[in-house]
Write a structure and sequence with these properties.
The chain is an alpha+beta fold. It is 49% helix and 7% strand. About 5% of the residues have low confidence.
Length: 532
């Protein structure tokens, strides 16, 4: 390991990662050695398949700094004690010039500055400027400031999920995959489609990777390698479970003398014991071969051809998220299915689309109700722009609708001056997209009332305080009844229209926790599990 660290080109397999890491573009010995020392430290904290790619980007940024020093300094940046703030500024000016000449993009400029700043700062934090270390004697002003980093340009994240009709055509072509590819590779690609896991998580599945939950439904047990979260459990369908059990039988027949606890589900062909998973490049190569061998082009619903080069093994993870979002799975439940700790991470995996969301908001705005259950009619012309602006600026989501109370809106929904008595407040209105929460809240109120009335552990005054208000129960019940009655009176086509708008709006809704009674039961993770 130490011998490899001394080299200028590292074989990352020795560090548990793939590919190579090349430091040769950094010509100053002090900067190259500092970059190596930082890279070794950074590798300790990185997991997953992208570690080498991330380090390459940082080394490339340092190589750009190195090139700048070579270009404008007579000593080519070799005399460390003579460096200073002007050298950083010349590097920044060089990147600005390259962007102006359209040799790099604004995003590349921002990322180069950010990554060079991060790596150089980490070298200092590691103590590499001390006597005897690579950066010894480096002046304090040879450093990036926060204001040096250009703002990352705004960009719309491309939707990497496959359209439903494209996924359906791929699933129809799975028999071709099974006949033309080795069985293990075919199983791996099918599992990518079915489960939405990262390719590395599928390839590293142990032989005994399925279990049953308390409802006797199948779950996949896998390790989230990227976030170091072993033993994750994902609901899967009967068909996916049968695919895995068939593969399990094949592996046991292939390695009858091996301990099942040491086997992997998708072992390498070169492994005599079945303990080493197949390499990731094999699944990528097999997938490209399958896509290229399709007998007819994939076509969108409008008849146009689909670009096959955009379909990668990772596309199925985005498609999995989009499929569940389209099925109406709540954002927090989808985050759990995807293995994300942050909801914002989950939202990058699927799209509703601004036009589609706006259309859904406009559609539902004709079907809003005040706290009394009275239908709110609005001028259709004024609605188009005004309601769209209100969606983000003039209101805040609360568990059963929307609030227009100014101080609560300004506080993001967490500072109601009336203790969140929504159904008694004129600042509150709701629409059919909130009907499930309203029904759940009514159920909670009724259940709490029965529980308090049945207890003998409370004094009379405490029981009176704990009992839900009969007036609130009546108001919520009447509101649920009126919204439901309104929907039943619509024509079937309009009901389908409203259902689609509700699905689109609910998919992007986030409601701040307001300290109100719990309204959520056990999350339903079964929706959208089936492939087309």
């Amino acid at each position: 390991m130490e011998a490899e660290q001394a080299k200028d080109i590292w074989a990352m397999s020795l560090f548990g990662h793939s590919g190579r890491l090349d430091f040769t573009a950094i010509s100053q010995p002090w900067l190259r050695e500092g970059a190596k020392r930082w890279a070794i430290h950074d590798l300790i904290h990185r997991r997953g398949e992208g570690a080498t790619t991330v380090l390459r980007a940082h080394v490339a940024a340092l190589a750009g700094l190195s090139e700048s020093l070579r270009a404008h300094r007579s000593d080519r940046g070799l005399i460390i004690r003579d460096l200073g703030r002007p050298d950083i500024e010349l590097f920044l000016q060089r990147l600005t010039y390259l962007e102006h000449c359209e040799k790099i993009t604004a995003l590349s400029r921002s990322l180069s500055c950010r990554k060079a700043h991060h790596a150089l700062r980490q070298m200092r934090l590691l103590g590499l400027t001390r006597a005897g270390d690579p950066l010894s004697g480096l002046p304090d002003d040879f450093a990036f400031r926060r204001e040096d980093i250009p703002r990352r340009p705004d960009r719309q994240t491309p939707n990497r999920s496959l359209p439903p009709e494209i996924l359906a055509q791929l699933c129809d072509a799975l028999p071709l995959l099974r006949t033309r590819m080795p069985k293990g590779l075919a199983v791996a690609i099918e599992l990518l489609i079915d489960t939405g896991r990262r390719p590395g998580e599928i390839l590293n599945l142990p032989w005994d990777c399925i279990d049953r939950d308390h409802d006797e439904n199948y779950v996949l047990v896998y390790d989230d390698l990227k976030n170091n979260r072993p033993g994750r459990r994902l609901p899967i369908t009967q068909a996916t479970a049968e695919l895995i059990t068939t593969q399990q039988k094949a592996i046991r027949e292939r390695f009858p003398d091996s301990n099942p606890a040491s086997l992997v589900l998708l072992p390498s062909d070169e492994d005599p014991d079945g303990r080493r998973p197949m390499a990731r490049h094999r699944i990528g190569r097999a997938h490209r071969g399958w896509i290229a061998s399709l007998p007819s082009p994939l076509r969108r619903s409008d008849g146009s051809s689909y670009d096959l080069t955009t379909i990668t093994p990772y596309s199925y993870r985005h498609t999995y998220a989009q499929r569940h979002a389209d099925a109406g799975v709540a954002l927090d439940v989808l985050a759990e299915l995807m293995g994300h700790e942050l909801l914002s991470s989950t939202q990058t995996y699927y799209q509703v689309g601004e036009k589609r969301r706006r259309a859904a908001v406009d559609r539902l705005a004709d079907h809003r109700f005040d706290r009394h259950g009275n239908h709110l009619w609005r001028d259709a012309q004024a609605l188009l722009e005004d309601e769209h602006a209100r969606h983000t600026l003039g209101q805040v989501s609360v568990p059963y609708g929307n609030c227009h109370e100014p101080s609560n809106v300004q506080a993001g929904g967490g500072s109601c001056p009336f203790r969140f008595r929504c159904v008694g407040c004129d600042h509150f209105h709701t629409d059919p997209s909130h009907l499930p929460e309203l029904k759940a809240y009514l159920h909670d109120l009724l259940r709490d009332r029965e529980r308090v009335l049945a207890t003998t552990d409370l004094e009379n005054w405490a029981r009176t305080e704990a009992l839900p208000s009969e007036e609130e129960i009546r108001r919520v019940k009447e509101l649920v009844h009126r919204v439901g009655e309104h929907l039943e009176q619509l024509a079937p086509a309009e009901q389908a229209d409203i259902a689609a708008a509700i699905s689109a709006v609910r998919r992007t809704r986030q409601v701040t926790s307001l300290g109100m009674p719990a309204i959520r039961g056990k999350p339903d993770t079964s929706a959208g599990l089936e492939r087309p």
